[in-house]
Each structure stands twice: as C-alpha cells, then as structure tokens.
Amino acid sequence: MSDAADTHFDVIVIxxxxxxxxxxxxxxxxxxxxxxxEMDKVGGTCLHRGCIPAKELxxxxxxxxxxxxxxxxxxxxxxxxxxxxxxxxxxxxVVGALxxxxxxxxxxxxxxxxxxxxxxxxxxxxxxxxxxxESAEITAxxxxxxxxxxxxxxxxxxxxxxxxLSSDEVFELEQLPKRVAVIGGGAIGCEFASMMSDLGSEVxxxxxxxxxxxxxxxxxxxxxxxxxxxxKIDVRVGVKVAGHTPGPTGTTIAIEGSDDxxxxxxxxxxxxxxxxxxxxxxxxxxxxxxRGYVEVDPLCRTALDGVWAIGDLIATPGLxxxxxxxxxxxxxxxxxxxAIPVDYDKVAWCIYSKPEVxxxxxxxxxxxxxGHDVVVxxxxxxxxxxxxxxSDTEGVVKVIAEKQADGTGGQILxxxxxxxxxxxQLGQAYLSVNWEATVGDIAHFIQPHPSLSETFGEAVLSLxxxxxxx
Length: 470
Hints:
CATH superfamily of the largest domain: FAD/NAD(P)-binding domain
Radius of gyration: 24 Å
Number of strands: 22
Oligomer: single chain
CATH class of the largest domain: Alpha Beta
Distance between the termini: 61 Å
C-alpha cells in the first residue's frame, strides 16, 4: 500500500513492468501526477524473470565458451568448471542493482507507488487490494492497464518447479540438469537451449511447428540450426508431446509417433498469456478477447473512455521495447501531443542465442507473399576481419529490397541477421527499414574498418550492382 495522502491522480497505471513503469516515468517527466500500482516488484517479468536474468545466464555461457577456446589465441588455461550457484548469485546482483535503480528513479520522479493488486471500477476508479487484506480506493483522469503476462502452460506438463519448469523456475535453479528437453522452439526456447548446451547439458528441442524461430528468415534460421547441430543440440520439429511419466531421477516424455525421451528436466517454453483476470474488467466496458487480451485500437485505447491498455496485456509483440513505445504513445495522447501508432511490422527483434539473431521488417518469403518483387543479398562473416579476429564467423547478414527495373535494389524491406553481436548491430537496419530508405541511401554511408558492421554495409552496397568485397 502507500502512505500518500492523494487519492486522485492525473493517471493511474496498473502494472509496474516495462510498459507500466515506462508510462509512469515518461508521464512524470512531463509533469503528470501519476500513481503506479504493482502487486510484486517494479520491473516486471523482464527485469526479474525474463530478459535480464536470461541474458545474464547467456553471458555466463559466452564467458565459459571463451575460456574453453582460449588456447586458439595462445592463452593456455585449464578446462573451466561451472559453479552455477555463483552464476545465480551474480544474476541476482545484476537484477537487484537494476531494481534499486528503477525504484529510486520512480521515487525521484515523484511517482506515487501502491503495493497491491489493482482492479478497475466505474468512473476510472481503481481499488488496490494489499497482500495483508488492506485496501485503498483511488481515482484518476486516465487509467492505463499494463498488468503484463505469465508463462503459458501445456496440458500434461503441469509446472512443479522441480521436473517441469517454466521460465520463472529456470532462473532459480541451483544446478543445471544433465539432460533437458525444451518444449517450444521460439526465441525463449532457443535461448535456453543454447545457454544450457554451452554449459554442459544435453539438450533436446521439441517443436510442434515445422520450423523453429518461425518469424525469422529461413536462411538465418538455417545458420542457427547448423550451429545447434554442431553443438549436439537435438532439434525435433513437427512433433507433438503427449505428457510425461516421472521416475526416480527425472521423467519420460511421450512423443506421438516416436520413441519416448528420457530427461532430468522439462522446460515448457510455449509463449506467454496476458494476465488480465485480476483487473476486474467484467462489466466495465473493456473488451477481452477469447485469448484473454484486452482489445484496443491502434492508439491503445480500450472501448471504455479514458482507459488505455499496453504491453503484454494486448495482442502486440511481447517485447519490452514495444511496451515502452506504447507507453509513450499513450502519454502523448494524454498531453494532447501528436501520437503516431506503433508500426508493429517494423519493430526490432533480438534473440540472444549462439549465434545471435536480430531482424527487422519482412523476411524474403514474407515479402514475396505480400506481392513484392524482391532482390536479396546474403553476406557471411568469413570475409569480415573483425569476425575473424573474434574467431566468430557463424551466421549471415541478409538484406531484402524491392527490385528495380535494372535489377538493383530499391526500398529496403527487411534485414535478417545472425552472427557475432548482431543484436548490437541492428540499429542501422532498424532505421533503414523504418525510414523507408533505399539501397542507394544506405550504401552512401561509410562503415568503420575493421568492424562487424561492414558486413551489413557490404550487403547493401552489393544491391546497387557494385561492391567492394562481395
């Protein structure tokens, strides 16, 4: 609960994840009097059970690989061993530092915090129910719903925190399982598989669809699959699991039409669902879809006047940076400023597996399916001096552009990449696609040498009909 004397605010935000605290910080910076209701800790899934801890564990895997391969640089080191408890302790320290910084920032911006579960009532009234049974009633000129999401479950694989894990439980493991099955080959599943394999687990990915990473360009996905195969990650697509039978030390997964799979642990990574059931929306006029999402228009407005919804609560890409963008979109409306809807077809996507994946805009197949006549350039890392220095040449940079009459590239429709630090290189591609730049526009710019970004520059340059090294 809160010690605040005020009960009426300019804005009440329900949910303190990236979308929610983003709205609170951006609005308070503009002078709005904001209340933020959070039932757990500000930072949400991203900070405590998602993006940040996942990337910390993936960085542990990166360090482990680096030490293992140090001899190729002439650095002689004994074979590394992993103290996973120290890894988790460091993860907790990173999360704690960011949590403390965020809490301090909200306090400095004079955002009024309410600890508890917020539910919506008539006339933009919010009832906050505290964990101890206490409650408070507050009102506002506008309410922003941002209660986030929780992991989806799978029939026959009820999460028990020991054998069957969701992403929440993975980050609290005391030691890594020797044999693990990851059900779901999306971004999160591939990140877990990559990390655990690099740290010594035997990993099997079980994906119901015909392809892992289905939104990614196929040429890029194939580079990830080659890497996974080389590291003995068993990727099985088009499979359907039919429950599991626990044993003395693990469990046996039943796979339809195939042999059973014995593992020590199962990670269920089949996406997330919106956490809308605690908001008390029945009868308010806010529309909930069959899948639990709050229905909004392109400006994130619900059907109830003065109430908006953002982040994982609505059916848009479940990405923290998309939540930030939606938060800014709503606050600008409340301030009477120009508000431009988010173009969800052109947001940045990053996957932090080994190799990393980053993309924006259309894949080659999606561009063709949309009716575009395209020309593509694919450049690999073997000719990039910085990649060779890093001894990291897996992957590809692929640029998809509208085809012009002379066969060269016109407007850049999409950029899909895999390889060294591509998540940090996506900025140029993001601006290129979102500014609807042409190949000629971007080819004009100079890439520093030696740098990883030269491969993107070469791919674009080659689509002009001439290139240096391509």
